[in-house]
Amino acid sequence: MKKTTKICCIGAGYVGGPTMSVIANQCPEIQVTVVDINQDRINQWNDEDLDKLPVYEPGLKEIIASNRNKNLFFSTEVDKAIEEADIIFISVNTPTKTYGKGKGQAADLKFIELCARNIAKVAKTDKIVVEKSTLPVRTAGAIKSILENTGNGVNFEILSNPEFLAEGTAVDDLLNADRVLIGGDDTPTGQKAKDTLSAIYEHWLPKDRILQTNVWSSELSKLVANAFLAQRVSSINSISALCERTDANVAEVARAIGYDSRIGSKFLNSSVGFGGSCFQKDILNLVYIASSFGLQEVADYWEQVIIMNDYQKRRFAENIISTLYNTVSGKKIVFYGWAFKKDTNDTRESAAIYVADALLEERAEIIVYDPKVSEKTIYADMDYLNTRTPEENRRLLKVVKDPIKATEEAHAIAILTEWDEFKTYDWDKIYNNMLKPAFVFDGRRLLDSETMTAKGFEFYKIGQS
Ligand code: NAD
Ligand code: UDX
């Protein structure tokens, strides 16, 4: 087997950046180049100040510090990187389509197609092309067709190697992956390509955690894994609503069922609803694929996971409104957290955006504090909804850097992200700062009900009456 000396990754985002940094760290003899068409993003990856990296992940800046410009490079020279690499990972975004056929459900593959055409144009030697992005099942067929019909007569092997890292724990997930999945053709050259890619991961993972399948199983497994995970969150969230009406406690129910080893204890934390760039997009994609094969019952089954999630976000906002005496007009509500989960600066599909939108519709005044999300991102998230003008968003919603001062004269606090630091705040001081009754709505089940009630708060926690 030819030794891999150079790899490149197209797309320097939340997956491309951390994944390639870990590969560079674990494989010092391989030169890793991460390329992107977004010059700003590449500048941020190359910034001397490691607090300015575009992706916040615990442990990432240390890895970048020890490998950058040794065997890890970030660049906008896409063609050069493609030309030199033995293996090319495609890790560009595959968002839900916002136009045309499949609008609102299907994955938009225009960036993937652009990459394939670019590889076809530039490649002068045989390449292994790896789908790292999450793609609808059978996309490898389309990539192959583009490469073979516009290529320079070189051989391309297409592999599917979906990424299972979760944001906030990306480095640890990569270093201690439950499994790595590699799908490819069952031909001799396909097998050789799968083994070549496997050899990279074998630098740090035991061989029995590297699964090889055909390319279609691999593509489909990624969508299915996310659908199953999101389904667990929607399942427990559906029960949280029932708990609130029956004096049952969702944490106790989750613990009781999670002890059954067939069910398991993970991913049963009731919340204000799942967010992130993957779950909703990938389930919608699965729904679209099922319905395009005429499997309507299958499509409806998975769509319910999303419907339940929308219900959970709406329910949280409606509870705030009804508890604050059916009006939040002119009332100051402080949001603790904007990211879709803790330990990330990513806000894509964050529940906070939708809760804020619902409260702003009722003319609430919102003050947001998040330790890692910038003001620019928060306003961009609100403006993207197009519910109101950018000027109105800036008038009604303010972003602050001091979480305690923010609570002065506030009517309520809503916890939208489970950042650990919220647990350490001086809640007595916060209580004194606030108007009375001082309401706290805990959408993450972060704080202890008895302690908060004893301090004087009117405390509401998802999944508990
Ligand atoms: P992202 O938006 O953070 O990054 C994608 C990058 O690709 C962007 O910087 C963009 O500029 C770049 N890009 C787009 N077209 C390009 C082109 N033609 N040439 C060069 N660069 C180009 O996206 P992400 O979160 O890293 O996700 C990437 C893929 O990985 C998606 O398919 C996603 O579903 C999948 N995935 C994401 C996660 C996650 O937690 N974010 C986890 C597993 C899988
Ligand atoms: C997910 C998958 O976990 C990962 O394997 C895949 O590669 C990408 O998509 P990510 O979206 O980064 O990862 O984070 P994840 O930890 O899965 O959380 C997704 C959302 O579900 C977050 O908003 C989180 O707060 C929420 N969640 C998760 C819950 O509400 N309860 C839980 O028990 C778990």
Summary tags:
465 residues, alpha/beta, Rossmann fold, 6-stranded parallel sheet, 14 strands, binds nicotinamide-adenine-dinucleotide, oxidoreductase, NAD(P)-bd_dom_sf, EC 1.1.1.22
What is the CATH topology assignment of the largest domain?
Answer: Rossmann fold
Shape-level CATH architecture of the largest domain? 3-Layer(aba) Sandwich
CATH level-four homologous superfamily name of the largest domain: NAD(P)-binding Rossmann-like Domain
Shape type: globular
Distance between the termini: 62 Å
EC number: 1.1.1.22
Pathway: Nucleotide-sugar biosynthesis; UDP-alpha-D-glucuronate biosynthesis; UDP-alpha-D-glucuronate from UDP-alpha-D-glucose: step 1/1
Family: Belongs to the UDP-glucose/GDP-mannose dehydrogenase family.
Pfam family, one: UDPG_MGDP_dh
Fold and architecture overview:
- InterPro entries: 6-PGluconate_DH-like_C_sf, NAD(P)-bd_dom_sf, UDP-Glc/GDP-Man, UDP-Glc/GDP-Man_DH_C, UDP-Glc/GDP-Man_DH_C_sf, UDP-Glc/GDP-Man_DH_dimer, UDP-Glc/GDP-Man_DH_N, UDPglc_DH_euk.
- Pathway: Nucleotide-sugar biosynthesis; UDP-alpha-D-glucuronate biosynthesis; UDP-alpha-D-glucuronate from UDP-alpha-D-glucose: step 1/1.
- Keywords: NAD, Oxidoreductase.
- Belongs to the UDP-glucose/GDP-mannose dehydrogenase family.
- The chain has helices at 16-26, 39-45, 60-67, 78-84, 110-122, 139-150, 170-175, 188-201, 215-246, 250-258, 279-292, 296-323, 351-361, 375-385, 390-396, 427-433, 449-454, and strands spanning 6-10, 31-35, 72-75, 87-90, 127-131, 156-160, 180-183, 210-213, 332-336, 365-369, 397-399, 412-415, 439-442, 458-461.
- With 465 residues, the protein is an alpha/beta fold.
- The chain folds into two domains: 6-213, Rossmann fold, CATH 3.40.50; 279-461, Rossmann fold.
- The longest helix is centred in the middle third of the chain and has 32 residues, at 215-246.
- Bound molecules: nicotinamide-adenine-dinucleotide (NAD) and uridine-5'-diphosphate-xylopyranose (UDX).
- The site of uridine-5'-diphosphate-xylopyranose (UDX) has 19 residues, from helix 9.
